[in-house]
Amino acid sequence: VHVVESGGGSVQPGGSLRLSCETSKSSRSILGMNWYRQAPGKEREFIVALKWNDGRTNYADSVKGRFTAYRDDAKVMIYLQMNSLKAEATAVYFCNARTREGKGWGSIYEYWGLGTQVTVSS
């Protein structure tokens, strides 16, 4: 398994959770790591993209100001701090790692975890 998410759970509206994502891929091969979510009956939704070499992030408008993604280069992990959670945040949250591997220019690969469930309910 190349990507594993953790940290999901149940929380009341207005609460916070921090998700973690670890990858077995080497830090040198990673181009970026991203978070997505998929609510029941809906398509997978982009949340945030994190560029690995400088940690810059790009958020979906729906989570700006409430969610923060950051990385730990040494541990090859990223985190998603989610604050002021709303009921509509209930979903399975997925982590994705995009890498460049192989000789020369290499090839681009994407790896997905199995997801972690987040439930926001009173």
Task: Walk me through this protein's architecture.
This protein is mainly β. It has no helices and eleven strands. The strands form two sheets. Strands 2, 4, 5, 6, 9, 10 and 11 form a seven-stranded mixed beta sheet that branches. The radius of gyration is 14 Å and the shape is elongated. The mean pLDDT is about 95.
The shape is: elongated
Strand element count: 11
**Most strands sheet:** 7 strands, mixed
The H/E string reads EEEEEEEEEEE
Q: Report the average pLDDT across residues.
A: 96
Helix content: under 10%
- Structural class estimated from helices and strands: mainly beta
Helix count, per DSSP?
0
Q: How large is the share of residues in beta strands?
A: over 45%
Unreliable stretches: none
Ends apart, CA distance between termini: 34 Å
Alpha carbon gyration radius:
14 Å
Topology:
Layout: E1 3-6, E2 9-11, E3 17-23, E4 30-38, E5 45-51, E6 57-59, E7 67-72, E8 77-82, E9 91-101, E10 107-112, E11 116-120
Parallel strand pairs: 2-11
Antiparallel strand pairs: 1-3, 3-8, 4-5, 4-9, 5-6, 7-8, 9-10, 9-11
